[in-house]
Amino acid sequence: MAKVAKVIPKLILGLAVGFSLNLGAAQAGDATAGAKVFKKCKACHTVDAGGKNKIGPNLHAIIGKAAATTEGYKYSSAMQDSGLTWTEENLTEFLTKPKKFIPKTKMSFGGLKKPKQIEDLIAYLKENS
């Protein structure tokens, strides 16, 4: 009986870890599909290391980067004052409705409607970081 009492907590922990890993895998995006989604962004952004700023800033290594810090790009006051660090979570919100997430941002894009496209785009941006 004592052995069973020791095994049950380990079994529960193992199931919990396995379940959370499966959830993470289900939420992971496809970088190859994200490259196709990025075609919508290419008119205004580059993603290459050392890439130039266009209408919008270069997005290389954007994940984990403080907002409004790409050298040589003139950001809106709203973006400069946002205090954001670009995490996957707030990128998801921003890419859904940029002007709702940061009112008065210069980004004119209306947002992506499909959560899968956002996941894929973020996977692509992570791959290019």
Automatic annotation (TrEMBL):
Cited InterPro entries: Cyt_c-like_dom, Cyt_c-like_dom_sf, Cyt_c_1A/1B
Organism: Kiloniella antarctica
Any Pfam family hit: Cytochrom_C
PROSITE patterns from the UniProt entry: CYTC
Matches recorded under Gene3D superfamilies: Cytochrome c-like domain
Keyword Metal-binding: yes
Signal peptide start-end: 1-28
Keywords: Electron transport, Heme, Iron, Metal-binding, Signal, Transport
Domain (Cytochrome c) ranges: 29-129
Protein name per its UniProtKB record: C-type cytochrome
